[in-house]
Amino acid sequence: MSASVARKWIELSWLRKGNKQIPLPEIIFEKLSFASGCCYKPVKRELQIDNRFWDLSRGLIIVDPSFDDRFLLNGIAHEWRHHWQHMMGINVVSKWVSGVDYKKEIIRFFTVNLAEMDALIYSIKKAPDDLSILWYEWIIKSRKETI
Ligand SMILES: [Zn+2]
Q1: Distance from the alpha carbon of residue 86 to the mean position of ligand 1, in angstroms
Q2: pLDDT for 65-89, tens place per residue?
Q3: Cβ-count burial of 96 within 10 angstroms (0-12 exposed, 13-18 middle, 19+ buried)?
Q4: What residues sit around ligand 1, an ion, with C-beta below 5 angstroms?
Q5: What is the DSSP string of 106-118?
Q6: How far is the CA of 35 from the centre of ligand 1 (A)?
Q7: CB–CB of 28/62 below 8 Å?
């Protein structure tokens, strides 16, 4: 990992430009069973993961560290955007369905949930990686097929 990538992980300032009023959430790296990342909105409670308790009062971003740097940065940008959405009062409710056709589920997931589409586009703009660009192409092509 390069030093600039490591700094990006820690600081989040590359995402916060123009949004200095938004409090920085805690960001941690944990393997997740249900996604490659997730974002908890700021609430006055704690979240227990294994034997540790995480304060959620500033929000919490969790990113699964078992991916390459570009995917991780893209995931951090995606989850940061959900944090931003929470702070703007946008309700983010999205559910990934596993065990179905992966490509169809990607298309459904991002088109049914506008907050997810917004986070996808934002993450491609801030930290593009091949997989998120491929997802976006699938979505755009699927729209063409339905017109
Ligand atoms: Zn998302």
Answers
A1: 12
A2: 888 888 999 999 999 999 999 999 9
A3: middle
A4: 116, 119
A5: HHHHHHH-HHHHH
A6: 9
A7: yes
